[in-house]
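Q: Hi! First time doing this. I have a protein sequence and I read that you can turn it into a structure. Is that right? Here it is:
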Amino acid sequence: MFEKESEKRFKVIYKEGKLTGNKILEDRETGIQYLFSWDGYAGGITPLLDKEGKPLVNSNKE
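A: Yes, that's right. Below is the predicted 3D structure, encoded as structure tokens:
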């Protein structure tokens, strides 16, 4: 009925805020990290980029 944490595609690696805040999510399959920001009912997501403009990838992905 409920997914185990290890079965989820994304994991939260950082979180701040409640009604307004930010999360950094990591794709368990690709290692790419994303920033999700929200304010009330509005929100947006974008990949984190390195200084060369390439997606930030965790090379130690599970």
